[in-house]
Amino acid sequence: MPVVSPEKLVSLQHAAADVRNICILAHVDHGKTSLTDALIATNGIISPKLAGKIRYLDSRPDEQLRGITMESSAISLYFSLSRKTAPDTSPEQKEYLINLIDSPGHIDFSSEVSTASRLCDGAVVLVDAVEGVCSQTVTVLRQTWIEKLKPILVINKMDRLITELKMSPGEAYTHLSKLLEQVNAVMGSFFQGDRMEDDLKWREKMEEKINAAAEKAQERTDGISSSVLENGDGIDTTNTPAEYEERDDEDIYFSPENNNVIFSSAIDGWAFTVKQFAGLYEKKLGIKRSVLEKVLWGDFYLDPKNKRVLGSKHLKGRNLKPMFVQLVLDNIWAVYDATTGGDQGKGDPTKVEKITKSLSIKLPPHVLRSRDPRALLTTLFAAWLPLSTALLVSVIEYLPSPPKAQAARMTELIDNSPGSDFVSPEVRSAMTSFKASKDDPVVAYVSKMVAIPASELPENKRRGGGALSAEEARELGRKKRAELARVQAAANGGNSVDHLTQAISSTAIGEQEKTTESESADSAEEEHLIGFARLYSGTLSVGDEIYVLPPKFSPAKPHAQPEPPKVTITALYLLMGRGLEPLTHVPAGVVFGIGGLAGHVLKSGTLCSQLDGSVNLAGINMGTQPIVRVALEPTNPSDLGKMITGLKLLEQSDPCAEYEVLQSGEHVILTAGELHLERCLKDLRERFAKCDIQAGAPIVPYRESIVRAEEMNPPRDRDLPRGTVIGVTTSKQVTLKLRVRPLPAAVTEFLGNNAGAIKRLYSESRAKEERERTGGDDTPPEQDGMEEAEPLETGHILSLADFKTELKKAFAEAKGEKEIWNGVIDKITAFGPRRVGPNILIDATAQGICGKVLRDSSSPTSDLSTPSDNAALTDKIAYAFQLTTAAGPLCAEPVQGIAVFLEDLTVAVPELDTTSASHDRLGRLTGEVIKTVRDSIRLGFLDWSPRILLAMYTCEIQASTDVLGKVYAVLNGRRGTILSETLSANFSASTTGNSTFTIDALLPVAESFGFSDEIRKKSSGSASPQLRFAGYKMLDEDPFWVPFTEDELEDLGEKGDRENVAKRYVDGVRGRKGLLVQGKKLVMDAEKQKTLKR
């Protein structure tokens, strides 16, 4: 294969119509990197014989060791294609640039998939022909749908149908048809969800327009007859269609005749499309190519007598094969039978000769004489159906170029960005119209930061490959002579003066060498952060100054503090997998590396040449949230500074890892899963911190809540309702009455799902209070704009009216408690913890002394005129509520699902004359009030039946019947819950002898560590789980339960022989946090002390 120079690739970047930006997405082990190897081999980077084995883009040692991809990496490929512009003309050579990104398939690294998809215009989605649609397949298809990428489906590992499942061509065709239906069913579900949402929005718009028009017409009813309104003449709905416009969904489905389905075997190096075989059979059958493309797939049959195409209705009882089986699959099966078939698996040379003659293929003699059947197989397929040709031709013909893709994608992407109404028309036009001149606005998106060792940077490498320059040759010769002199001096014992002087001089040179080598080694060990970016408009050059917009930036307040910094671009790179090539400038539509952003971009960000009217593209869905927390400490305490620096570098370079310092002083890293944690620790020790680091036991999050159980202890105070507490401060000056109740489950779920809406409502109310306090129409504080931008990233945010309506519906679902929750929404004072959590503080006092979070701007503000003492203490009560819900009474974990009613507040102190004395008095009361409120809420919490909520994983396992029992044993041993067990439709029980089941289960995160390894060991590697965080599930067991009824005492005894699992979890968390653990024995046998003698 010809080696393509970087200069050639750089020259192709300027022809935007001939550039394709694609990412390869799939479930783990479905063949992404092997497929990429075959494409890289076309550029002469690796040998075609090593394609599928070397895994070129898996540059990390642990990726090679485990055989899975952990980081998305990019490479630029050259592809030339000869085409005829007209049937009579000679073919013209056209050159293309393919910017390809290979992404991981493991669930722990799905954040890498999210970062890769935003940079691309099209996606190649791989599906294993045997395993079919898996959990991560659905995830990557959803990612392409969200990002509006145009996908191509590659059904990979077709060879497994022949070699493993031993299917006949007819069985394989049926199997592939079912597989295609499954993928299309997933795409159809996405379309149906969007269609229902669009229909709902259309109905809401119609109602709003009709109501608005009716109100306007009502105002003008003076002198106008009511018949006008009845006929609807006064209602203007011209901008909204009278009927919902149905969208065409034909383009979203995969179908071989549409040229968006490829059948391949990456390990054997072949692939084909229906279009290829239509070209092969066009002359032989005398049927037009366009007709053959439509009938080669589906229920179409070829009449052997008159060579006519028949539909299934015209078979008339004849047993004919479908055309896809007869003309395509039979030939593929024949090649495998001729090369690797037979009794001994060595094939049949006669059949091979017959096939090569019919295909007009000449194989090298040494391949024909080879004893390796696979060498013959791969060589034959490489000459007949090369994988790179089928895939790259489909990519060029079906997937859009950057100008076309941006025209289709950018409008919606900009509209969904924070503060989209304030994006300047110049920036919007430059992105949608693909303006790439130097004078146009520059907009680039940095999806992640990549850590590169200094020795790998192009400026630290010698260019030119093989030939040495004159200076380098002289320097090398001097070193060689010095080394030779040292050896001679040592051999002669230093008898002669000449040898002694040579030895001295050589020693000096050697010392210089050592010092220079050590200096270069130290500099080479440094890690440099390179941005992984895509340019949407303008041209970027080295030395340009550009603004770096953080993810929370909003163009509505471009100069909000802290103002986005302006940085100088120090370097631009062409991404070539394991290497980088320097660039001087980059045109729009290119995926590239960028230097100079270290310290300015944490994980992702937007680069823009202007601050006013800029766009923030950093709102990206990461797919998985970090859930596993581990406390780290250096083995040598003096290395603490190194570890902290390494953790900050790791946080910048990993899209999903997070670093935080707890109140206890522990340095904690948050990761997406066990494998992700292992990779982060390896990077810390070997690359970023370069010191030995000890990792503690994983810190798993829990939640605390309360329920109304059938068997509960009697209330603390029999004269008061359950959960009611009267708290008095230590100075007896403040008395308050609180009542704690469990929230309905529907309300808790609604509040948990709409944290973004709560945060925005709080920011708006605080900004309004600030304006009222300062008086006039002053602008709100700058930091509010930064806070508002964050929830806008996550999608649709409810307005205040919609939020109150939906919350009212959730409260209405509580059966038998309507009187309790009636009118509660307008009395909500705060949400907690962190002002956005699923707990509420309700002002139930007669005077309404607290502020209301969900108060409409048009509602009267009479509640502000409250007694001064009570009003001054309300913010202290809200603060105590936040503290209590952030650390519950069971094990200091966040609380969810409680409502705290403030029923009364009394301040019993004599009035003082001076304002300074009053201020001092309230200052002394602050600490007392916070402590009293916190203790009262905790007592009211424990008056109910407390519960602990466990963080849960959804677990999907594919296992055959012979290991099904072992999988169940492992799940049951780790407190897993089986949700479903379905017989996989992708496997044929008649051909393999063993059916394969897909098991869906729930597994506590606390029990998941070591789960994957145990499953693989027990099943001998045939079953591998995929774990995804699924929220929190209540463990229906009281941590403080003890047997007290006669039956329980009789069955379990006074101590309770049954293990209290909830108490075990609570005690474990309390012990880790250094809290008191009830019932823990410090000394087991005090009288039996062991000594050294006994």
Explain the overall architecture.
The chain is of the alpha+beta class. It has six domains: 1-196 and 253-269, P-loop containing nucleotide triphosphate hydrolases (Rossmann fold, 3-Layer(aba) Sandwich); 274-385, Yeast translation eEF2 (G' domain); 402-406 and 425-457 and 525-608, Translation factors (Elongation Factor Tu (Ef-tu), domain 3); 628-699, Alpha-Beta Plaits (2-Layer Sandwich), CATH 3.30.70.870; 716-774 and 797-856 and 868-909 and 918-943, Ribosomal Protein S5, domain 2; 949-1036, 2-Layer Sandwich (Alpha-Beta Plaits), CATH 3.30.70.240. It is 39% helix and 20% strand. The protein contains 33 helices and 33 strands. Strand 15 (571-576) and strand 16 (579-583) form a beta hairpin. Helix 5 crosses helix 7, helix 11 (323-340) crosses helix 12 and helix 11 packs antiparallel against helix 14. The chain starts with 5 loop residues before the first helix and ends in a 21-residue tail after the last helix. The model is unreliable at 223-240, 499-524, 776-796, 857-867 and 987-993 (pLDDT under 50). It holds the Pfam family EFG_III.
Structure, briefly:
This is Elongation factor-like 1. The chain is an alpha+beta fold and 1094 residues long.
Strand order of the largest sheet: 14-13-19-10-11-18-15-16
CATH superfamily annotation of the largest domain: P-loop containing nucleotide triphosphate hydrolases
Tell me the number of helical segments per DSSP (H or I, 4 or more residues long).
33
CATH topology of the largest domain: Rossmann fold
- How many β-strand runs? 33
Shape: globular
Task: Kindly name the structural category.
Answer: alpha+beta
Main beta sheet: strand number and arrangement? 8 strands, antiparallel
Distance between the termini: 77 Å
Percent of sequence in beta strands: 15-25%
- Using only CA atoms, what is the Rg? 35 Å
CATH architecture of the largest domain: 3-Layer(aba) Sandwich
**Helicity, in percent?**
25-40%
Total number of distinct structural domains:
6
**Quaternary status:** single chain
CATH class of the largest domain equals: Alpha Beta
In round numbers, the mean pLDDT is 81
Keywords: GTP-binding, Hydrolase, Nucleotide-binding, Ribosome biogenesis
Region (Disordered): 214-242, 762-788
Protein name: Elongation factor-like 1
Biased composition (Basic and acidic residues): 762-776
